Amino acid sequence: MVKDFDCKIVLEDGEEYYGYSFGAVEEKVTEIVFNTSMVGYQEIISDPSYTYQSVVMTYPLIGNYGITDEDNETKTPTIGGLIVREYNDIPSNFRYTKTLSEIMEENHITGISGVDTRKLTRSIRDKGSRRVIITSVDTPKEVALDRIKATPVPRDAVSKVSCKKRWYSRTQDPQFNVVAIDCGIKLNIVRSLNKKGCNVTVVPHDMSAEKIIEMNPDGIFISNGPGDPEDVTSVIEMVKKLHGKYPMFGICLGHQLISLAYGAKTYKLKFGHRGGNHPVLNLETGKVEITSQNHSYAVDDDSLKGTKLVKTHINLLDNTIEGVECKEDKIFSVQYHPESAPGPQDSSYLFDKFIRLMKEGK
User: What are the Cα distances from residue 9, in Å, to 82, 83, 276?
Assistant: First the structure.
């Protein structure tokens, strides 16, 4: 017996896809994007960079290994929704503590399964990211489209996910003190810094340069996060004031913010980069790294000319900038995620580079 569809998604151009509810049964208006990772759905739903977005998973089976609390990338997930081909609610994994649907219901994350995700992904690839509503199957298309139009496009997503007060993550036998600017930081970044001998103080995105100086850090890290980098003026101004005074390392949104602080420009990609299989060329070594990515914006290549930054990495799929550096100021950044969990781990050497710069600064 075939179960009747109970929900659907309607894109702003009128496309409709029908499916079955899981997670929170709540109507949501978000941006729609796709992710090509074959594993790691837990890290995806708990990554703050997906705030206000619904993610289409191109891998067809989702939920089969459940959720393990210690693998979360944030304590409170803020992703908008999850769209999958087949959802499995009976996990086979000795580590699992909850099902995917349970954690989504707890955090008001709407899910829809049974969708033709191949067709939907092609639509996003060909026409670009668009706004979408996840709603009841009974909602007329015209009503759904009116609700999308009536919902304002959210701005300054970083202020939603950044911590409100500083917090600490210490390690045994620390060698360095790092201040991490929280624009939506993934917890595995903090873990990675701890493993390299760093005590980490995570601070709100709008903490002033003067207060950071008072903390006397050995280095400053600028995190990933959601939304348009031009909205995050507080971090851009902080970088302008402190670059050259401390070693700095930025990842993803942090990469874009460093570039903006040096005078470069950013632009929105047609459908972004999301997944664990992007080849990136390291221009210094000539090596190709397989990387994990999650971003909608990129640094404009032409605008980099005339700044103090030089290009260090490029994406081999579309030639977009994947890394920049100013050796004089001991500052560098990458667009992708060297800390990615569950992988790949080709780019973990970048944390060693940050450690080396802090050693030289001591």
Answer: 11, 9, 26
Are residues 176 and 246 in contact, defined by beta-carbon separation less than 8 angstroms? no
Please, are residues 318 and 163 in contact by the beta-carbon 8 Å criterion?
A: no
How far is it, in rounded angstroms, from Cα 310 to Cα 295?
A: 21
108 is catalytic: no
State which H helix or E strand residue 297 sits in: strand 288-299
Condensed to tens digits (0 to 9), the pLDDT of residues 264-312 reads 999 999 999 999 889 999 999 999 999 999 999 999 999 999 999 999 9
Q: Is 237 a catalytic residue?
A: no
Catalytic residue among 183, 198, 252, 326: 252
**Helices 253-261 and 233-242, interaxial angle, to 10°?**
60
Q: What is the pLDDT of residues 39-72, one digit of tens each?
A: 999 999 999 999 999 999 999 999 999 999 999 9
CA pair distance 115, 78, nearest whole angstrom: 22
Catalytic residue among 205, 255, 273, 337: 337
To the query of whether residue 205 is one of the catalytic residues in this protein, the response is no
3-state class (DSSP) for residue 126: helix
Cβ contact 52:157 at 8 Å:
yes
Q: Give residue 361's pLDDT band: very low, low, confident or very high (50, 70, 90).
A: confident
What CA–CA distance (Å, rounded) separates 114 from 346? 34
Alpha carbons 11 and 34: distance in angstroms, whole number:
14
